[in-house]
Design brief:
By secondary structure, this protein is mainly beta. It has one helix and 15 strands, in the order αβββββββββββββββ. Bound molecules: 2-acetamido-2-deoxy-beta-D-glucopyranose (NAG). GO terms for molecular function: lyase activity.
């Protein structure tokens, strides 16, 4: 009898699994490489009192990666249907450099002892002016078996204003998954009946922050100091759980 009571409730209720209103506390971990910084600021904010500011500085004598990211563990595992949201803002003078990408969010898992020990699946990035995402599917190993499907949202990012990204996915390696993205409230990615993750099931983290992922492959442009603000970050089981604002 008890189970008959509980089941309809469980199906109907949205569950917000993670929220962060722009604070350095409350994350599973933060990760800063080289001259990057992560700080909590009172201006600009999307809402509330604080936002996160991530920076990275290019250094020609450094050959490593340029992450300045905060991590929320248990972003997804196989079979999960979840929604994620965050706001980001580029400074007014942001240089939209041809041939350069800046990643702003990603899902990534650790595969100890395997061919690709840290493998990001879906990422969200700015390529020059345009917002992109991707699906990563297939077997993890050998790494040549991994299949990457890049998705151009066809939407431009502008500087000096807050933008909202919402991702909703059913994470599965078979073709019963979906990947949907909203940009400033407009649905810009509609991938339905597709695989959305690799065959190996591990808990993927959800990370937001600045990852200047072109710089270790070849710096271009005239802006070696980069900063991005983030605010109102959340995820949960239903679309409404991705929205804090
Ligand atoms: C970057 O970090 C390195 C290593 O810690 C340091 O030697 C260098 O001065 C830093 N550069 C800048 C521009 O802060």
């Amino acid at each position: 009898m008890r189970i008959l009571y509980l089941l309809p409730l469980a199906v109907a209720s949205a569950t917000q699994l993670f929220t962060n209103h722009g604070t350095t506390s409350g994350w599973s971990k933060s990760h800063i490489e080289h001259n990057g910084t992560i700080s909590q600021v009172t201006k600009p904010v999307k809402s509330g009192r604080t936002a996160l500011k991530m920076t990275q500085t290019y250094d020609p004598s450094y050959t490593g990666l340029y992450h300045a990211e905060v991590h929320a563990y248990n972003g997804y595992s196989h079979g999960d249907e979840r929604a994620y949201g965050f706001w980001f803002r580029l400074p007014k003078d942001w240089e939209f450099t041809p041939g350069q990408t800046f990643n702003i969010a990603q899902f990534i898992a650790n595969f100890p002892g395997m061919c690709d020990e840290w493998m990001p699946s879906t990422m969200i990035w700015i390529s020059e002016r345009t917002l992109w995402t991707r699906r990563k599917t297939g077997a993890l190993c050998p790494s040549t078996a991994q299949k990457t499907t890049n998705i151009n949202t066809q939407r431009n990012v502008t500087a000096g204003v807050w933008h909202q990204v919402v991702v909703q996915a059913r994470w599965t390696p078979d073709d019963s998954g979906f990947l949907r993205v909203w940009y400033d409230g407009e649905r810009v990615v509609n991938e339905e009946g597709v695989p959305t993750t690799v065959a190996e099931d591990r808990p993927f983290q959800f990370r937001v922050g600045l990852y200047a992922n072109s710089w270790n492959k070849g710096y271009k442009g005239n802006q070696p100091f980069r900063q991005v603000w983030f605010d109102e970050i959340a995820f949960g089981t239903e679309l409404e759980d991705a929205h804090l604002d």
